[in-house]
Amino acid sequence: MPSRRQFLLGSTALAGSVLAGAWRPVAAAPTAEGSFLPADFTVAVPDLAPERIVRRLVGLRPFRPMGVRLEAEAIGRTTLIHHYGHGGSGVTLSWGTARQAVDLALAAPGRGAVAVLGGGAVGLATAWLLRERGRPVRLYADRFSPHTTSDVAAARWFPSQLVDPAFRSPELDASLRQALLFSHQRFRRLVGRGYGVALLPHLRLGSQPPSPGWADTLLADLIPPPQDVSDRGLPFQAAWVGATPGLLIDMPQYLLAMQRDLRRLGVELVQRRFEAPGEIAVLPESVVVNCTGLGSAALFGDNELVPVKGQLTMLPPDPRLRYTLSAGSLYLHPRSEGLLLGGTYVHGDPTTTFDSEAETEILKGFAELYAMPGSALG
Ligand SMILES: Cc1cc2nc3c(=O)[nH]c(=O)nc-3n(C[C@H](O)[C@H](O)[C@H](O)COP(=O)(O)OP(=O)(O)OC[C@H]3O[C@@H](n4cnc5c(N)ncnc54)[C@H](O)[C@@H]3O)c2cc1C
Asked: For atom 1 of ligand 1, which residue has the closest CA?
């Protein structure tokens, strides 16, 4: 395992490339007319014919009404740091809450190896930051990519389905702002470095400019308000079109790159399922960070965790399509393996069966947005 000094000096190709990346704000420099979108920006219209569908994915977002659980608990002589419950924001927040979890882990007694439970976006970022802070790490997970919920995430960098409005507070907002800023910096550094993280404009469609939501206000220092591009002649049936700079994470590519790099940094990835906390208490590591996502419901009896089922329809990749799009709950994200269409959020549904009727509605919704022949508005 590389020493802390070697790591910080960038002894591996990875550390050299990623740690050296300086943070830049996400917004590309505005053009002369004050727009970050080039004047010749065009919108490729996807072919949404149902017979072209290549894949269907279903995932369960690990939602806790009060937000991410970040706290220490003693089980026997082991210090357990809980770090789960990211709802629809686990990728977006992963690096930021990982830093908060790592601070808790490093405050525990001992300087030995730390165990991370969970091989999704949250566990991988946690393992990375622990290594970066000089601790040996072993990562245990029942499943790794491509078999985690994180692989399903459509993964535009934006928080959603994170906290029930009843639990919002100035303290929570401040903590989330800090986590989002750090996470954004980390993803921003990975752009163009083979991690599947790309800068892409985000187009938001509606009948009128939206008033800023809770997430927009949390991100006010990072993402500028949408720029009105309704008069650009873009091929949409929408009275209002706004554009913001955005980040998109191609999850299968990102997770594989993270796993590869963690191994290079000396982290052992161990396939293992835990059935009870007692199995964790006897691990050789005396500090354990629990990043098991929805798995924490069964493993630790967390009744606050609620699955929020979501599904994605994948069409063949379309390299012409260089934007993400949202309209109400509908969204479209280009991934290297295909074009993802989504927009379902079913609270409390623990099943992973695909809903064909919902898919038909989503396809119809997009056909109307793009004003395609045969659609209600086309
Ligand atoms: C359709 C859809 C779209 C989404 N879009 C976005 C998006 O655009 N942006 C965004 O930020 N998020 C999005 N999400 C949410 C995101 O997928 C989750 O928040 C995120 O994957 C949670 O990551 P995690 O690492 O906590 O959990 P997971 O990815 O589920 O990883 C949990 C890990 O813990 C392991 N584990 C669980 N139980 C045990 C056990 N008992 N023993 C051993 N190991 C165990 C698992 O095997 C796995 O390795 C979306 C989700 C869905 C379903």
From this structure: 310
* Atom 8 of ligand 1: nearest residue by CA position: 155
CA of 164 to the centre of ligand 1 (A): 19
Span from the CA of 315 to the centroid of ligand 1 (angstroms): 23
- pTM (2 decimals)? 0.92
What residue's CA is closest to ligand 1, atom 10?
Answer: 89
On the question of pLDDT at 14 being above 60, the answer is no
Residues near ligand 1 with C-beta < 6 Å?
59, 61-62, 84, 86-92, 117-123, 141-143, 148-150, 152-156, 273-274, 291-295, 299, 310, 312, 342
Side by side, the strands of the sheet bearing 114-117 are: 69-75, 78-84, 287-290, 114-117, 137-141, 268-271
User: Going by DSSP bridges, is the β-strand pair 78-84/268-271 parallel, antiparallel, or unpaired?
Assistant: unpaired
Question: By C-alpha distance, which of 106, 103, 83 is closest to 94?
Answer: 83
Give the chain's domains with CATH numbers: 43-369 (3.40.50.720)
Q: Characterize the bridge pairing of strands 137-141 and 197-206.
A: unpaired
Residue 20 has pLDDT above 70, yes or no: no
Q: What is the DSSP string of 297-361?
A: HHHH--TT-EEEEEEEEEE---TT---EEEETTEEEEEETTEEEEE---EET-------HHHHHH
Q: Whose CA is nearest to atom 32 of ligand 1?
A: 292
Q: Which residue in 356, 280, 275 sits closest to 311, CA to CA?
A: 356
Contact call for residues 193 and 127 (beta carbons, < 8 A): no
Task: Look at the block and give the residue holding tokens 């525990």.
Answer: 108
Note the pLDDT tens digit of each residue in 92-122: 999 999 999 999 999 999 899 999 999 999 9
**Ligand 1 centroid distance, CA of 238 (Å):** 33
